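Thread: quick sanity check before group meeting

JM: Hey all, I'm pulling together slides for Thursday and realized we never actually wrote out the predicted structure for the chain we discussed last week. Dropping the sequence here so it's in one place. If anyone has concerns about the input, flag it before I start.
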Amino acid sequence: MIWNVGIGIIMIWGFLAVLYLLGALLLGFPERTVDDVVQFLRPVDLDQAEVLLDPGANLELRWKLDADTYREIQRKRIHIYLELLWRMAHNSMILVEFGNREAARLERSSQQERRRRQAEVIAALQRAAVNVRIYSIFTIVKLAFLMAIRPMLTPSLASFRTTAELDGIQSYKTLREVSTAAFEECRRSTEKLVLNF
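JM (edit): ok, ran it. Output follows.
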């Protein structure tokens, strides 16, 4: 019985993944220029993420609260962190797409010296965005899996600060720095970038 349910869930996820890929292939992603990128980014509060991942805060909650209350609050904290992870994954996807389009544009450019500098910045942006994407997707999968197989047990979020040998907070800070450098290299204002990112 459980085996059939598991196979059914895997088949449904596979079907949904194929539908998504077909939709993305047929509809494609809109072409985003450096001026459009900021509008597609979602804000990520890294201070809140650091508080959620703080082992001291988790220990304090565990000491102060009874088991049922702790479990309820911890599940809320996990859901908040999952939302932050989805935003991180979304932003990194937007920046990878932007980096890909800029890299293609730079290949057609005729200004050698400027092109070389911009290509280095765009490559750094792509690396940082891919690292954030890897961290956020792996962490989302791990948290969702743990919550699905052990709904009554709530894992400590502190153990999810590093996934796939990537520190999530530090990776996102690096992405912010590299994105700012990319915007400055493209001679665009970073004011809106900082607010939306």
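AS: nice. Residues 32-196 form one domain. Strands lie at 162-163, 166-167.
JM: adding both to the slides.
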